[in-house]
Amino acid sequence: MKSRLAKACGAEYPIFAFSHCRDVVIEVSRSGGVGVLGLVRSTPEQVELDLRVISEAVGGKPFGVDVLFPVGDIPTDKAELSARIPDEHRRFVAEIMARYNVPEGDVPDAVVAGVAGGAKATMQDGLEIGEVALKYGAKVVASALGPPPAAFVEQVRESGALLFGLCGGGDQARRHVAAGADAVVAQGTEAGGHTGDLATMIVVPEVVDAISPVPVLAAGGISDGRQIAAGLALGADAVWTGSIWLGTAESELDPIVKQKLVDARSRDTLRSRCISGKTVRQLRTPWVELWEGEDAPKTLPMPLQGMLVAESQRRIFRHRVSELMGTPAGQAIGRINAIRPTREVFYDLVQGFAEASTRFTELLED
Ligand SMILES: Cc1cc2nc3c(=O)[nH]c(=O)nc-3n(C[C@H](O)[C@H](O)[C@H](O)COP(=O)(O)O)c2cc1C
Questions:
Q1: What is the pLDDT of residue 302?
Q2: Beta-strand (E) ranges in 227-305?
């Protein structure tokens, strides 16, 4: 395929896969795509370990990382920030925890698979993590929210890696390009995680037109080959996927959540600010519904909302309080009908794309 991005990365297919799980990343990259490890919740030490394992396992095939460079300067004084959280909000969380009998007592701030304790990262974390990633040969560094500082963009260039920015509209895309992005992920509202309100069908051509000739990756709802063909038809050079990998054997999500994804239909997600303070599309659970209810206090801005809910999320997952366990997830979860190996999901995408392309060609023939 003549995808500029696949070529520039040295990948066989223009399929990029975002995941927080190391083994999903490895399997996608080994299969001919580009696995991109999400590092928003990691420390530089964990990143060092994960990237060492990935770079050895992929044997020269391309992989990437996704780092958070927060928009604006987020203060780092935790005590000062904590003092800004109103009692009303703390009471609301305590009431939910009591209603669902979640055992008392915090659990260590270790990574608990599937827990979205809000984006805690600071600009400094983003820089440290980005530098580790370049050391281990990441081919792509994606910036989840704001663009990175100029000095880091320079480092990425020198390393030969590509810098991607995620966006939900044309203006944001232009800002990423002005800051030095080599490509932009145009993400529709269908997507899991932080997401805007424009549909993939609208946002992809909008971003393509806004930043042409800079290449665009289509994202949001892509879970089979027909949607890959659609994304490329909209002018994208490659696709960027996330939710579909949550239901793989290699995904480290708690089995309770994986089963919820298998059972879920496309309508079982909600966009809510209840995890991080910014709109995150996630699996519908009583936790999200209560925050979206009329009695709920207004969610707090980033990073306060994340700080408010982090401990309760850890407790919910540690004690496996099934009703409240959720995950960021997009509408594509309607197509997760069984837990399958990453490699199998990947090859289905490739085959479905080939079939869709053939149908397209046939349609154009007399
Ligand atoms: C569980 C989950 C967590 C996510 N976390 C991040 C993140 O930390 N950084 C980021 O740039 N994107 C994140 N995303 C968004 C993905 O990068 C991607 O844009 C999105 O999943 C694509 O849409 P899809 O979910 O419909 O495939 C996340 C998505 C999911 C499903």
A1: 87
A2: 238-241, 269-272, 280-283
How many CA atoms, within 13 angstroms, populate the side-chain half-sphere of residue 311? Answer: 14
pTM of the model: 0.95
The rounded distance, in Å, linking the Cα atoms of 328 and 155 is: 31
Angle 278-279-280 (CA atoms, 0-180°, nearest 5)?
110
Q: What is the pLDDT of residues 252-301, one digit of tens each?
A: 999 999 999 999 999 999 999 999 999 999 999 999 999 999 999 999 99
Q: Please name the residue whose Cα sits nearest to atom 20 of ligand 1.
A: 242
> Cα(258)–Cα(339) distance, rounded to whole angstroms?
8
Amino acid at 251: S
CA angle 327, 328, 332 (to 5 degrees): 110
Cβ–ligand 1 contact at 64 (below 6 Å): no
Q: Is the CB of 184 inside a 6 Å radius of any atom of ligand 1? A: no
pLDDT of residue 246: 98
CATH of domain 4-70+119-250+341-359: 3.20.20.70
By CB atoms closer than 10 A (0-12, 13-18, 19+), residue 72 is: exposed
| Nearest atom (ligand 1) to Cα of 119 | 8
Range(s) for CATH 3.20.20.70 in the chain? 4-70+119-250+341-359
Helix axes 44-57, 22-31, angle to 10 degrees: 30
